């Protein structure tokens, strides 16, 4: 946003979006020229009292024209849909080894937390040329994470996790904006994305005060909130074991089968009576009101780590 | 024309027109005459239009500076919310249907009134009651949810008068439904002998299609607002995720109404323009039957595109794809209409009186707005520009550039019929051109600001966007003058304008066969119809092949 009529293309995705945008612009320009041109032409040529030829209408007019331009617009639009959608589909899922960063939105600030536990407020440092996958949740109302230079935007919704990914392709500082109206200071809910070369990013990261990373914080919560009393392997309470759970299909008491993803884990913690696992009693208490969104993200990260290789740090 | 016209040349005993048929205030407040109810609506929505306009004037003034210089963020948020709520539900939705629709539908089909005259009056009182709620919400301190009432902000977090505002919208919804039912019944039951479905003027088809949407979609608006109230006032867990609710559910319900509502606002405008262009081009409308099918297609498909408002909400990618596809499809009938209006000018005898200028302005602005809709149907582009000024520009092109231009087109076209007076034509032409210019000055820069990333509903904004906001605010000043001008010269014409003839434009259509203004029961005889609408020339010919007295009807009247 440093020049008047252009916006930097600072991510790989931005280039794709702009291509579609320019094609649509060209097409719209041509259509406007056609319609305005015809209206002007007819307005001048067939103004009242002009000498232009009128008389009987040519036979071909009417039905053939109608069907012709109906089909032409239909095919054009079908092509546009296909082109735009294929770009959309190819950018849906984040690459598997993307850098994972957690974002919590609240009235009226952005809190971000890196994998090593470093936290930022209204700012996010990311490395150049590396896919970054943001896992986002909101503590209150709906917000929207919008980085114009990356052409990405995703609502951040209370009660569910949303995600978004991008790969920055230019170093620099780019505005981060909240795009979903969220109350009094909505327009002040802004921050910045700082894209650094990977070695600078690594240096920056090591200089940050180390918080616990998410997995360790989750492990701590797992004990302090009493989860381990039932879910630890050594416990003699009959509760589902969590090792290897993440990503697996789970058979529920009511016959449904669900995948143990982030949303399922969150629901199981906050509304423990909803999706009871087959073969277990519904004895788990709800943790609604006891854990905030950041803590749930940490617990989820911990549970996820139980099903993966041990972290190599 | 019809036999009725010939019969009208016979001398009749003098009788008062509908305006002079009782002159007490009570005779107006208790009237069941559709024409008088149309006037009541016109006065009401004019007041709301200038209320909503005043709110946005303050907003545009504030946006001259990037950091806010007049008001607090709370006041700003309340002003744009009030602007949206008033303009959508108290101006645009009732604008053309409840004024011109009410006035013209019975006249155009040759009926003495609508099917349920008392229900018609009742719906006006509902509008007044609803307006009282909404204005109370403003006077009591305002509401800051935006016109969209998104949860959980509206149901759990806003500390403003959400209840009063939502109640107002809830009630005015029932006025919409009542009007819709009334118009559907009228179109089905009260057509004059010979007025078959495919002899209906396109304005009647437009009002009919609009009424179908009103009746089918508005109840869903009522439901979604009721659920907001239930959670906000009674604490029922509906949208609160901590208690098992889903805030996104509201968006699905809301847009299931509010996307079709866009067509409630624009279909009647299409109807108005389809009357005016043939009249001033002296041509039959090109592709009458395609125009009818296009409107019905828009009304039908309009119910299945709501998800394009929610591409970034976290809805499933599959749903987004389906909604994207249908959003492209619904652009086809709109494109057909634009091509047909353009083709209707071919081999015409075109003149450029003020209604025609407004109508051509509509075609231009609607085309621009419609094309910008293609950007919003493409998922990757929409993700970037949604919730930015690009969207603000897009829907203002459709609903203000389109619908409001058409409203003024209709106002100038039927003013002689409604009031029996002529207005100063050169002022009207000047206002039409000024409105077109002012509109583009206001909203064209917003496309740029939006694409560059300026989010909507921003009280303060990054300084880079100031240039666009200054351009926009300057344009808004021009637009405000253009909107005030007609208020001046049309009011003047009520007192000093010359008497209007029965058919000053030489137009076809039954409404022009009765006197200006019409008598209380519309016609002094039963109209009969024996031909298609827009009979400006013999079929298969172009303009100018009619006898000169028909071509030049307006000069001889």
CATH superfamily of chain B: Cytochrome c oxidase-like, subunit I domain
* Averaged pLDDT of chain B: 92
Q: Can you give the helix content of chain B as a percent range?
A: 55-70%
CATH topology of the domain at 99-207 in chain A: Immunoglobulin-like
Low-pLDDT stretches of chain B? none
Structural class computed from helices and strand pairing of chain A: alpha+beta
Through-space gap between termini of chain A = 39 Å
Instruction: Count structural domains of chain B.
Output: 1
Could you give the distance between the termini of chain B?
A: 15 Å
The greatest inter-chain interface is formed by: A-B, 87 and 92 residues
Any idea what the radius of gyration of chain B is?
A: 23 Å
CATH class designation of the domain at 99-207 in chain A: Mainly Beta
Uncertain residue segments of chain A: 309-313
- Write down the overall geometry of chain A: elongated
What oligomeric state do these chains adopt? heterodimer
Q: What this model shows, in words?
A:
By secondary structure, chain A is α+β, with helices and mostly antiparallel strands. Helices cover 35% and strands 21% of the residues of chain A. Among the domains of chain A are: 99-207, Cupredoxins -  blue copper proteins (Immunoglobulin-like, Sandwich); 214-306, Cytochrome Bc1 Complex, Chain D, domain 2 (Orthogonal Bundle). In chain A, the strands form three sheets. In chain A, strands 3-2-1-5-8 form a five-stranded mixed sheet, covered by helices on one side. In chain A, strands 4-10-9-6-7 form a five-stranded mixed sheet. In chain A, helix 1 (12-45) packs antiparallel against helix 2 and helix 4 packs across helix 7. The longest helix of chain A is centred in the first third of the chain and has 34 residues, at 12-45. With 557 residues, chain B is mostly helical. Chain B has a single domain, classed as Cytochrome C Oxidase, Chain A, CATH 1.20.210. Chain B is globular. The chains are: A alpha+beta (313), B mainly alpha (557).
